[in-house]
């Protein structure tokens, strides 16, 4: 299998279109603000950032909480000279001085906990000694907590010490309790001085520009002094975009987060409220996209109109987009195939080996390792965002030659991405075969469909739809994520699927919109027509058996995965489009949430205050009106330029010169969580969605 070239759509089974209409030229993501994503919550509300300040009642509650904390600290004030001297005998002068400095900060701080920092003790390779230090703090400094972080080398660890934001009620943090908390760090639990009438989770809207979700939350967490894993969210959004989504954090004060807005760059938080439960992956209906295609060139406006109307009526083939298969020259589905065959060493090599198209610092680190096998030296060079590579190398340093263990050292959601992408590779090819053989306008005998009505009593198979395995937390390393939620969210639990019969054909109960194809697994059925053969033939070419495993490692075995179903065809919801003319390629053509807030503030302060005090439901209910207001305030209609720019029988071509008029197409559409907006755009343009292709259009 070829791995050295840049991956293209046909390589992963993206072969067909629904309509035979001509396409046209358009540049995707010329600016990151040309791709706006707003999460759609489980109630169908589009999540928008409309207010940066906490409501007045939340501010008052915060003040009450701070008074309680201050009173408690005052009552606990005492001299710790004796305890510090005991610690000196245990840990040495350097660490004792660090502790003394920390306690001074705690004693002198006022109000917010932000003013109290933390300390990291000297590297310690003696586990027994580290345990003694942890126990010393539990017994003598109940207002401080400790945890362990990586030291400067693989053989040592460092103990981190900081003020306990969870109060004094959490003594005895043993490993059992950590497991019961789902391995959350101590600092995810927030303040214990929490009003009983408030929900324990603070929910807020996270707005970010050109940053992935984990990166943005890492920045916020660092400012708050909590780890990024303390946050809950429904899905990871695309990096090269402007996006807004819901986030929850346990027992944090809205005023603390709101105070960060002045310091955050490319990130804003707002729309604060308290809720009883934190967000979990998959808890969303989908995403609302506002996509601007620039530099549009078409035979005529009628070509664009026909393509857009067809997309609205017929939809698109619900392929997994290119991002599902990674961004490098080594596609993730090829690594997945190696894992399914049990070729652990091969899989590790594919993860670590040099690749085309990467930045020099990454390429140099990979080449250095391949030539020298120096793990320590490679780790010093390898950027920290390469999570999989670093995890594999760190494990190989401890356990040389144990390639399976090295693969298991990769975080679960990331390592499962490889197998899931192979399932997606098979699914894409099957979907293409379905379109080529049977078209897109009717159901055929042997197709699989989601059941309706009385058919639930007949020959059916139940399995979670659009969900890859028993663990639906199908989020991956952010570098591999597209504009989907990152989670293949089940449409409903135990959705029933059946094979279409001749009787079904005569009744007309099912349409092509009901047709699904399986993601291979132990609890799915395959179509009984010719499409099933595609799965087995492709897998056989890769030396993979879909019904028997070649090894006993369950998580890398397709027969140990549940499997799922995915709709073959998807129609965009609330689909709107408009043509715009522009002269400046740097001019924004769609308003972001932050633009709307800034615009409102600058034109009418009173209106801004009223909007900030409005309830969340009101804010969200206005979202569907936005395309109309945007149309009135942004850009020019192409109708005004039509006569002067077009000659009979010639293409409507607009120069890339900033001074000349160019055309853009702005699309607004809502898609379910597991769908790729790039695949809808592909159907429209009839061109590749690869990053490499769209870069050439920018030149």
UniProtKB/TrEMBL annotation:
InterPro entries: PsdUridine_synth_cat_dom_sf, PsdUridine_synth_TruD, PsdUridine_synth_TruD_CS, PsdUridine_synth_TruD_insert, PUS7L_N, TruD_catalytic. Residues 629-639 have a biased composition (Polar residues). Residues 170-179 have a biased composition (Basic residues). Keywords: Isomerase, tRNA processing. One of its GO terms (cellular component) is nucleus. Residues 315-571 form the TRUD domain. The keyword Isomerase applies. It comes from the Eukaryota. Residues 160-192, 603-657 are annotated as: Disordered. Signal peptide: none annotated. GO terms for biological process: pseudouridine synthesis; tRNA processing. GO terms for molecular function: pseudouridine synthase activity; RNA binding. Belongs to the pseudouridine synthase TruD family. This is TRUD domain-containing protein. It comes from Salix udensis.
